[in-house]
Design a protein that fits this description.
- With 254 residues, the protein is α/β, with parallel strands linked by helices.
- It has one domain (59-251): Rossmann fold, CATH 3.40.50.150.
- 42% of the residues lie in helices and 15% in strands.
- The strands form two sheets. A six-stranded mixed beta sheet has the order 5-2-1-6-7-8, sandwiched between helices. It has a two-stranded antiparallel ribbon with strand order 3-4.
- Strand 6 (178-183), helix 8 (188-198) and strand 7 (202-210) form a beta-alpha-beta unit.
- The radius of gyration is 18 Å and the shape is globular.
Length: 254
């Protein structure tokens, strides 16, 4: 075997192992061009850390979904004051992954969560396939010390700022521009609160992602022109895949 061929073979084998069911998303990430130097080996290592996190921490997303959000963050790499927001950190797996990407992009990650699980609520939902969905108080709880340990082990804690409390109390205190946000908040009231406070702060080229696009009530809210005009103060955005996809991307208004 020629010199260097062995390492190339091992790298190819690593890529095959990391592809899994999300082949198209992984290949797109490996090929994408970003405004920072991100060699193939570094991309493969990032994917490996994503996979290690998934194998050790319960997460509520696919590799493809996280790579889509990561792609948007990396395309804004080097932007002064780059700010990524996560609303709903669960057990901390998504937080760890987002922190790694945010560090690569030279930004900071603001993590909003009650760290007490879903708040008490009377909401009753159905998904896009007509099945009932209920979000009980306390569900998806990840205590702050536990989330911090997950991020310390698998992520980049130095770029994280944790904002503990209900969204209705913490989101109004957000006082900086936002570039990318990821919502995994389940409740309609939480989705409404986050969008009302995040969208007006979203900078050009940025996006808010929601992982709740499979919930009929969320789809109805996102498709409600009156909500966007009266509560958010902007024209209704075009949201690709609305009513068909779980992960939805809401682009900045300008």
């Amino acid at each position: 075997m020629r010199r260097g061929t062995g390492s190339l073979y091992r790298r190819a084998q690593s890529v095959r192992f990391l592809v899994g069911r999300d082949r198209a998303a992984v290949i797109a990430f490996l090929r994408a061009r970003y405004p920072l130097d991100l060699p193939l080996g570094q991309r493969v290592r990032l994917l490996a850390r994503f996979l290690a996190t998934t194998n050790h921490v319960r997460t509520y997303h696919t590799q493809a979904e996280m790579l889509r959000v990561s792609d948007r963050i990396l395309r804004l790499a080097g932007r002064p004051g780059l700010t990524v927001v996560e609303a709903g950190s669960g057990k901390g797996g998504s937080t760890a992954k987002l922190s790694l990407v945010t560090r690569l992009a030279g930004g900071r990650l603001l993590v909003f969560d009650s760290f007490r699980g879903i708040p008490p609520n009377a909401e009753r939902h159905s998904n896009l396939w007509g099945r009932p969905v209920e979000f009980r108080a306390g569900a998806f709880r990840g205590r702050l010390p536990s989330v911090r340990r997950v991020v310390a082990r698998f992520g980049a804690p130095e770029v994280c700022e944790f904002r503990k409390g209900w969204f209705a109390d913490t989101m109004p205190q957000l006082d900086s521009p936002v570039d990318v946000a990821l919502l995994d908040v389940d409740l309609l009231t939480s989705t409404r609160t986050c969008l009302v406070h995040l969208m007006p702060r979203l900078r050009s080229g940025g996006a808010v992602f929601t992982q709740d696009g499979h919930l009929r009530a969320v789809v109805d809210l996102l498709g409600d022109a009156n909500f966007w005009r009266s509560e958010v103060g902007m024209l209704p955005p075009r949201i690709a895949g609305l009513g068909r996809r779980k992960l939805l991307e809401i682009p900045a208004a300008h």
